[in-house]
Structures are given as structure tokens and as C-alpha cells.
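Q: Hi! First time doing this. I have a protein sequence and I read that you can turn it into a structure. Is that right? Here it is:
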Amino acid sequence: MKAKEVLTVLVIEDDPDIREFVSKVLEIDGYRVLQAEDVATGLKLARIYRVCLIMLDLRLPKLDGWHFLEWRGKEPLLMTIPTVVFTASAGVTQREKALRMGATEYLVKPLSADHLKSSIDRIMQGRRCGNHER
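A: Yes, that's right. Below is the predicted 3D structure, encoded as C-alpha cells:
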């Protein structure tokens, strides 16, 4: 019997409470979670590990989530990774911009564990990728 592949999710969020909440929900659901509190760390982790999904806050210190989406769109390695923006900004203009820049989904905080889980499960359904270093 083949072991179930563990999928890796990268959470880029500067608020430690939110980052920990999202990580715990994903870990309980069987995902391996990498955490970053800023874009620079998130980019480094995304380039080193086989990440299957990126959870991205837009409001981050120094470089914001918009910068990450911009780099993601120019880097072949990153552009294939589904990216879920989760932010407190509920504006339609921001949502449309994020989706135009390649975000797979746009979730508005605060998130319930059930809503987060169902959104991630829908995106990850049938997706395969490794969790080892490149």
C-alpha cells in the first residue's frame, strides 16, 4: 500500500496569532506547513521547498503581498503554485487586482476554520507535489 503524499503549504502572514491559526487548521487536515512572517522569507522558502500552495496576506511589513504576487507572475517556479490571498481588505477592486495578478482565490479575514479548510481542500483536490527540498 502506497503512503499518502504529504502536501506542503507556505503561510506568509506577519500576525503570529493568525499565522498560527491557519497553520494549525492546515496541520490538523494533514498538510505540512511552512511559516514566513514576511515576503523575503516566504520567497526563500518557496524557492527551496516543493510548496503545493501559498497562503498570502497582502498587508505585510517592508514588502507587501502585492510585491510577492508580482514576483510570482515573473518566476516560472512560483507561477505554477496556487496562491490564496487572505486579507482584511474586502474591497472588490483589490480582489479583482489580486485575481488578475494570478491569485487562485481571495479570502477575507477573519476566517473560520471550516471556511479555510473547505477553500483549501477544493483547491488542493487531486493536486500532487512533493515536500522534500529541491
